[in-house]
Amino acid sequence: MLDFTKSFIEIQFPVSKISKESYKERKANLGQTLTGLGKWWGRKPLILVRATLLGILMPVSEDTVKDKDIFLKILTMDNEGLWSRKSKAISTKDIYSHLNTKERKQYFDSESTLDKPKYISGLNKEDKEYLQKLVFNRLSYDEKLVLCERPEHVIIESKEIWEEINSHLKTNAFSLEELVKELGAKRYGHNPRVGDCFAGGGSIPFESARIGADVYASDLNPVASLLTWASLNIAGASDDEVEKLREFQKKVYHDVNKQVISWGIEHNEKGHRADSYLYCNEVRCPECGHKVPLAPSWIIGQGTKTVVILKDNNIDGFNMEVVQGANKEQFQEANNNITFRKGKLYCPHCKMETPMSSIRGDRRDSEGNTIFGLRKWEKHEFVPRGNDVFQERLYAIRYVEIYIDEKGNEKTKRYYASPSIKDIERENKVVELLTDVFTEWQEKGYIPSAIIESGEKTDEPIRTRGWNYWHQLFNPRQLLIHGLFMQKTDKYAKNNYELVMGLLGINKICDWDSKLARWDSAPASEKIAQTFSNQALNTIFNFPSRGVSTTTTSWFFNINNTKIMSKANIDLFDARIINNIADIWITDPPYADAVNYHELTEFFLSWDKGLIEKAFPEWYTDSKRVLAVKGTGQSFNESMIEVYKSLKNHMPDNGTQVVMFTHQDVKVWSELAMILWSAGLRVVSAWNIATETEASGLKQGNYVKGTVLLTLKKQISNEIVFQDELYDEIKYEVEKIIDSMHDLDNKDDPDFTDADYLLASYASSLKVLTAYKEIEGIDVHYWLSQPRNSTQENPIEALINKAVKIAYDYLIPEGFDKIHWKDLTPDERFFIRGLEIEMNGNYQISSYQELARGFGVKEYADMFAEFKANSTRLMTPSEFKMKNLGNGGFSSSIVRHLLVAINECTNSKSTVEGRSYLKSIYSENNEFWYKKPIMIEVLSFISRLEHVENMALWHEHAYFAKILKEALKNEGV
């Protein structure tokens, strides 16, 4: 019997597999479906959206295992589905290594080795295919994923699979789109309607529409709405439609290229064309008056060994010589003359250093406020005045020579050169050409004219360079070429699709070609890196500029399209005043988010305004930063309540909301719980999808990113409860969800980590709390008005923390005695549970961070051999040795001393040294005999690592832990 009053996502969710699929998608870079359309921060993986929507639509049965199997089958995450997604062959070496002795004899030559396996003579294609499938089924999920396409690239064509799905769900579908429509009709009486009022880069509406739902998408930000429109109408277009748009792009590019060639601003006297220009700021040294070109590095190319050598002209500055194929001495000379060091100007002429703040003329007023010293540029200016602090200087050009080799083949050769007199003349011509069209192009919206509004991120260009208008973030060459693309787009675009194609193209060009873009000198690169490599508008002292030929990678952006047939409605709208009905609201709100979308997108909006007004006259072209839901504090919380109350009022009684957010701090959770509770919503489940990547940009160090899916329904209770009545309910719910997760988990391929059990305890507490209309003694309005950095623990936070403690008291390693477990310190429990995490093949930092939070362990860094994303692991006994021993905490614990004893046994290949060490440590008052039972319990646990395949570094230690355990058992017998 199917129960449509509950959804699959309320009961279970295969978080491990979805996390792995999400990570694979995130790492695909340009292979991702929507990223090619343009820059947006924090797009959610499409597989996560697909799984979420399916999880909401799928009913539950009494057979939870079968429910999970069907869910995975629909997403092609089961064994059959993974095999259908396999697109890469397993190597002969890998096949040989995964076969047993009998199988090797049957299929491989007798002289085969692991290094040189060779099939027997005459092995046919069917046998090789059989071996591929045999070995594929023996691989772990992670190993299989390396060989597979993503789920979005595979269609289930097997009639037998669809019959199994239909039999369980009582449907008659033979495609994912048909299934979504049928499940929607069974649950809501019509095709499911999915809404997202924080659409951002468009992931949620796009994927919902692609798999068959009707969608409503809105955002306050015009750039977000533009990207969402593009995702549904361009990434959602047919191949023929995309090909027509490609022809439009080619037409615009051809005209731009033709015009630039006729101007003669990119070709040198040899006919070679420039593809990159390198500029730097130049300032006068306040100590000696010399003009100093600024850069934190004078290495242009590590692969081509190209550097800039500064030559003092002994008059008023430096000549700059570009050397390609530099020797060690020239590299050293370039490094010795780095002129920007740790925030200071270094002058190679007088050898003096000056803080950059002094160069800018920054000072403090009588009240201690900083007064920034730079002149603000005026609207008509696009080059610095002669007396400005920062001048701009061209110091290198990369030219491309095309020639015919001896075999008659066309070849390309790139080389760097110092600017010649003719090059400088061409630079001057660019300024003249831009001057001629500047006013006209600003009026027509081909180049920006908007002032930069002050803000957290937008202040930096104003403060550090004096740039007061958006066009000043681009140099004359960039403004001329970008403006030319805009002019030709406006000339040739015949409809909204072509106008949007032009806007997306210019946005991509600007992201990869501005005075905030960086030159990447890495051996495999030697190219321009994008402006938004992080979430800021960082000014730099040396910047590149593209020639027209290198804009092609931006202008002809990736379109990974799939024809969308669903109904879609896109609005530019404030989330607080939504008036569209949706059965399902899936939102990724800017909750406690550090990304200032409203400010950063003004970089693009400054270029887009004119053509957006032409394409969408009903849209506004202001970032609406005043209305943006942002920050923390009372006004933010009130805005969030308003938004979610509106969404609740615009969904049916059996509707569902999923809120995605990326914070796992208990205080943030409690605040969000109070917001959603105040909006009239109740929590029914929460799941954590980990998509860990290495840190970049502003998020320094090992930044971990996981997405929490919080599932919500309408609040229907009128009951009031007292706080002291809640503990037993929370304890029951926490233990109930942990038991159900244990029952569902595959022991050979665990789906849940400690982070998931911890999250389940959060969700269980919120499920209990939000089930009531009111909790006596909790003034929600008061607590939401408190700053998030308050040290005062709010009552919701306290209840969540109690739930966490319940969970960690309940989660005992398999086979570990409960009594002995309680005798261990939190640090010891953390270490042992950490080993259990590693046993399950989980190397995510987030898992250990959550574990530490759950046990209240703050000092744990010294326990780890590696603490990097996706490669985190604890130290082995031989890595610990005697480090930091006996300094209190973990270093003085039984577990820590046992690790020393194990290492002693491993080194001596005997238990004598290990036993002697333990007796010397616990020599007083029969302490050794008192502690022996718990030592045996811990050693028994560690000995299990001997046969854990992914913990080879522990194998020998685990063996001697087993021997030491037996020796202790027999001690004194």
UniProtKB/TrEMBL annotation:
A Pfam match is DUF1156
Question: What biological processes does GO assign it?
Answer: methylation
Q: Which domain of life does this protein belong to? A: Bacteria
UniProt cross-references to InterPro entries, sorted A to Z: Antiphage_assoc, DUF1156, SAM-dependent_MTases_sf
Provide a Gene Ontology MF annotation, just one: methyltransferase activity
What UniProt keywords are attached to this protein's entry?
A: Methyltransferase, Transferase
Domain DUF1156: residue ranges:
12-69
Q: What NCBIfam families does this protein's entry cite?
A: DUF1156_antiphage
Q: What protein does this entry describe?
A: Adenine-specific DNA methylase
